Amino acid sequence: MKYCEFCLDKKLERDKAEILVIGVPFEGSVNTRGGSSKGPEAIRKASDCIESYSPFFQKDLSDFKIYDDGDITVRGKGKLALEAIAGAVWKRMAKGVKPVFLGGDHSISYGIVKALVSKGYDFNLLHLDAHTDSQDEFSGDFWSYANWVRRARDFFKGDIYQLGIRTGTKEDLDYASKAHRLFLSPQFVEGLRYVSEKSKGKNLYVTIDIDVMDPSLAPGTSNPVYGGLNADHLQALFHALKKTNVIGMDVVEVAPNLDPSGRTAILAAEIVRDAILAWWG
């Protein structure tokens, strides 16, 4: 892709890649603040604004074989669209390759998780978000970003750890506290310690909604909620999972139209870079 500076070796062939970057510019049911379908393009462009080297991890993206595999384009909405995403992800996954997905709204994670389960991966799920995404229905929709975790429970049997949560309906918070291991935003350090301990010797998939961050750092998202994570929290996250087998990740809900400064997409690009350097180095 033209702008993807995660992929420093422009001549790398796909079948030689260790890490695949895949955009999923899908946006299903939204409230009045849409725009996440432009997220993958914005994150790729923003990657040109950051260094490939991190002084915190003393590693460089040039040390990795990263290939930008373009976008998964899906039309329509609802369950059929999410199942189509699952099928497309299933086709692109190769054994041993680490995928990095750029969203898109958070419902894309339903398709990603389903594809990994269908491929035979055994893993737990770390979900960082301001919301539990566990509502039974959202404005009459059962297949949106607000309920993808609840729908995934129909087939996903692994543990789900939710960190950074700080809003929701009473019903979905009650559900999440019973069905998952839920840590509210002030409990982030405690939750991270718990996940790190429970993930030893196990596979983990990490899904990051950019609205888990404080809105002052990431205003370009559809549902910002005050009191989120900061840079120190991110560094703690990257270091805590360094010895965990993270099999893949996604960063979702970047809506560049809601942030003229562009700092939300830049932060998302930095998250992708540091996750690669910390977890797969």
Tell me roughly what share of residues is in helical segments. 25-40%
The quaternary state of the protein chains shown equals single chain
What's the end-to-end separation, in Å? 23 Å
Q: How confident overall, as mean pLDDT?
A: 94
Task: Assign the CATH topology.
Answer: Arginase, Chain A
Q: What is the helix tally? A: 8
Shape: globular
**Structural class computed from helices and strand pairing:** alpha/beta
Integer count of domains: 1
DSSP strand count:
10
Q: CATH superfamily assignment?
A: Ureohydrolase domain
Radius of gyration: 17 Å
Largest sheet, described in full? 8 strands, parallel
Q: Mind telling me which CATH architecture this is?
A: 3-Layer(aba) Sandwich
Essential attributes:
Arginase, Chain A, eight-stranded parallel beta sheet
SSE blueprint and pairings:
Blueprint: E1 19-24, H1 39-46, E2 53-54, E3 59-60, E4 66-71, H2 78-92, E5 98-103, H3 108-118, E6 124-128, H4 148-152, E7 160-165, H5 170-179, E8 181-184, H6 188-198, E9 203-209, H7 231-240, E10 245-252, H8 263-279
Parallel strand pairs: 1-4, 1-5, 5-10, 6-7, 6-9, 7-8, 9-10
Antiparallel strand pairs: 2-3
Helix pairs in contact: 1-8, 2-3, 6-7
What does this structure look like?
This protein is of the alpha/beta class and 281 residues long. It is built from 8 helices and 10 strands. The chain has helices spanning 39-46, 78-92, 108-118, 148-152, 170-179, 188-198, 231-240, 263-279, and strands spanning 19-24, 53-54, 59-60, 66-71, 98-103, 124-128, 160-165, 181-184, 203-209, 245-252. An 8-stranded parallel β-sheet has the order 4-1-5-10-9-6-7-8, with helices on both faces. The longest helix has 17 residues, at 263-279. It is globular. The protein starts with 18 loop residues before the first strand and ends with a helix. The model has no long low-confidence stretch (mean pLDDT 94).
